[in-house]
Amino acid sequence: PRIESSFGQLGGTSLGAIRALTLIRQQLCTNIDIGLLFANPSIRQLAQAIEPLMILDAPKETVLTTNQSHETHVRFSPSFVIESVGIALLVCQWFLPIMVIHRWCPFLFPVLPVFHLLFYAICSHLLLPRNINDDNVFSWSFYRWWFLDRLWNNNTFWLQHILGTPLYNYYLRLCGARISLNTHIYTTIIDAPWLLEMDDGSWIANETYLNCLYFNDDDTFKLSPIRIGSNCSIGTRSILFDGVDMQNNIIVQPMSSVTGFVASETIVDGPCAAGEIYPIASRLYLQKIWLRQLIVSSFHHAWLLPTGYDYLYPYVLRWLGAHVEENVKLAGIDTFLSCPTNLLKLEMGVTTFGGVLIVPTELTLTGDHRVDQIVLGFHTNLGNGCSIMPGSYLESETMIGNLTRISRETKSKCGEVFMGVPARTMPFQMPPRLEIQDQIEIIPFWHTCLSHYVSKCLLLSIYSFGGLVGGSVIHTILACSFCRCCSYIRYQVIEQIITRMILDYAQLICSFLGNTQWLIRLFRAYGAHIGENVIMSDISNITDYHLMTIGDNVRLHVGTQIQGHSFEQRIFKLAPVSIGNSCVLMSYSIVMPGCKLMGNNRLYPLTLIMKNDQLPPDTHWKGVPALSTYNYLSASHTSIRSV
């Protein structure tokens, strides 16, 4: 081949790029990442870029020091007693008021949310969270934070109904936050509300992560405050972590990660009629945007009733005014319902996967909300966790990678692949689309109704027969047994009933188990191979349990996902994933099938490890796709500029 031609011109794909990267690391130089291939997209350019790196491939003295500190540091072990008692208290706190009110005082059901919310506020003062200092993981300080975090997580069911209102601000102040009443907060993903400070006129969009918890490399943790000045705008799915001090008049674009000090008047970008503008709190904004989002969030659990890629989704969107053509498959419908449906145009063959976010509005520099049309061309694919901003227009056969942000500034051409925040064109192409292969199954509606009916009858029978304690034990045994044998079942209806029972168990029981060893034991019972002293925040952290191998002392933050499957061009594929010892995966990082993290790796927020990639030991990574932090500052497209 011509050595001046780009890999894309030679027919290179993302998998081919990862294979080339693996061979280079094995045979030439270990200190490179995928960014080097993207910045040098021809054989000649790549050879010229690698040559000096082979000479400067220096030993890692700092890594040896880190490893030595790991060996000398005293590790705490999880407390079986504290975790068991804590889970029992959480279950009683949530279910006992429901049982008492149901039996003796049905008229008090309207005050049930008040009881649950006040219980957290009382505990947040009794446990003295402001006295929680940096300490060892699994220490008493850690478990105090854990108990409050689980209470907060359970209360998000009620809090989602008051997001963006002064009532939510009052409640946060009751829990210890120092915030102005003239702020608009649309997120519940807050792991330490008492460390939150916000001034007048600031806006925090939905699905923003306010992470005060940070796992250090020496098996300790720390809680750092998050301070946000006046008139700041934090875009959707942004992550604030490890201590944030933002001054005034700052704009954080969607899907950006922020840590440390940010000066005033800066823009952080990186880690319903079209064009109408609605002022905040105006009647039009409340009518067209806020009320729609309130209804969608209030009925969140109702959207879980249909299966993914339900054939009814396109019909519902058409009925609501969206332009949706044939052969459109959507993993979920709630994100499309959150924005004005008359502004949606989905052409034939569009596929959206899990976690896709259709952002209904964008905040202008004057503080108003702007809506605009969103067009997805023929056979467009939207990967996991990507965000589509108002005004986005994607040409035919465009592939959007995981954790990618598309906006009106994204200029696409037919057949291009986009990745990153903000999105940028990748120097490879997708394999030819196979018309006859489509392995995303459409479940008949009567199958869905039957599976719901049977699974809910079984659920009621289990807890009517065994009570709260006995029913939980029986439900756990059945969930573990069904999860083990689910792959051997060939009848679609039975498989769907089993899947529903496992999902019911995840919603009913697993919300109490996050960040405990009970969740790890459950994953092992499901078939995953997990080491000792591992911390995972949620049942959704891993999928495809039989393909998961996770070492000792691994930490997974909220929103992290490790998956062993993919639907490449609607073709289902599986590959095992291996996570080495002492790895830390921070919020909203994604590890794709076939990946291997060799050990002592840290993935910063909003990091994507591409399929079949292998990360050398003792390295830190960030970005989409992941770049080594040694090269990130020079290669990153993240920008901080003056307003």
Automatic annotation (TrEMBL):
<dbReference type="InterPro" id="IPR036736">
    <property type="entry name" value="ACP-like_sf"/>
</dbReference>
<dbReference type="InterPro" id="IPR050179">
    <property type="entry name" value="Trans_hexapeptide_repeat"/>
</dbReference>
<dbReference type="Pfam" id="PF00550">
    <property type="entry name" value="PP-binding"/>
</dbReference>
<dbReference type="InterPro" id="IPR009081">
    <property type="entry name" value="PP-bd_ACP"/>
</dbReference>
<feature type="transmembrane region" description="Helical">
    <location>
        <begin position="457"/>
        <end position="478"/>
    </location>
</feature>
<feature type="domain" description="Carrier">
    <location>
        <begin position="1"/>
        <end position="54"/>
    </location>
</feature>
<keyword id="KW-0472">Membrane</keyword>
<feature type="transmembrane region" description="Helical">
    <location>
        <begin position="80"/>
        <end position="101"/>
    </location>
</feature>
<feature type="transmembrane region" description="Helical">
    <location>
        <begin position="107"/>
        <end position="128"/>
    </location>
</feature>
<keyword id="KW-0812">Transmembrane</keyword>
<dbReference type="InterPro" id="IPR011004">
    <property type="entry name" value="Trimer_LpxA-like_sf"/>
</dbReference>
<protein>
    <recommendedName>
        <fullName>Carrier domain-containing protein</fullName>
    </recommendedName>
</protein>
<keyword id="KW-1133">Transmembrane helix</keyword>
